[in-house]
Specification:
By secondary structure, the chain is mainly alpha-helical. The chain folds into two domains: 35-75, no CATH class; 78-130, no CATH class. The chain has helices spanning 23-32, 49-70, 83-114, 119-129. The longest helix is centred in the last third of the chain and has 32 residues, at 83-114.
Length: 130
């Protein structure tokens, strides 16, 4: 099998970048950098700023769990009659989500330890198709 070699054109571009700092604009942006409103219905005596920030910082965990639960798992409605059954189902659901989180964490850790990412799988797949 003789494949014709394709000629590839090589292009070279030259460019330069010039930056000018507008000090007043920079100072104004820096003044607002890192600030955003955080609203709560708790009185300030019951919730310190640090506690409010930590609650806000950890909120993504529950949001991420809810997003994971809603997508890709083809959940069907289940009609439960008693609070005990509702509690039991939610407990099982939480266990299932925790298992998923642990599997993902173990996968990330193992990928980091190998320091190869998923490249090894791609090269093996290429070899098996040749």
């Amino acid at each position: 099998m003789n494949k014709k070699q394709e000629k590839i054109a090589v292009s070279t571009d030259h460019f330069s970048v010039e930056l000018k700092l507008k000090k007043a604009t920079f100072e104004k942006a820096l003044y607002h950098c890192g600030y955003y409103p955080l609203l709560t219905n708790k009185p300030k005596e019951d919730l310190t700023i640090e506690a409010a920030m930590m609650a806000h910082k950890n909120q993504y965990k529950s949001e991420h769990t809810n997003r994971r639960a809603k997508s890709g798992y083809n959940l069907e409605p289940i009609y439960l009659q008693t609070p005990e059954r509702i509690e039991a189902l939610l407990f099982l659901f939480k266990i299932a989500l925790q298992i998923i989180v642990l599997i993902k964490r173990a996968a990330r850790t193992n990928i980091r330890k190998r320091d190869m990412g998923l490249d090894i799988f791609l090269t093996q797949a290429e070899k098996s198709t040749v």
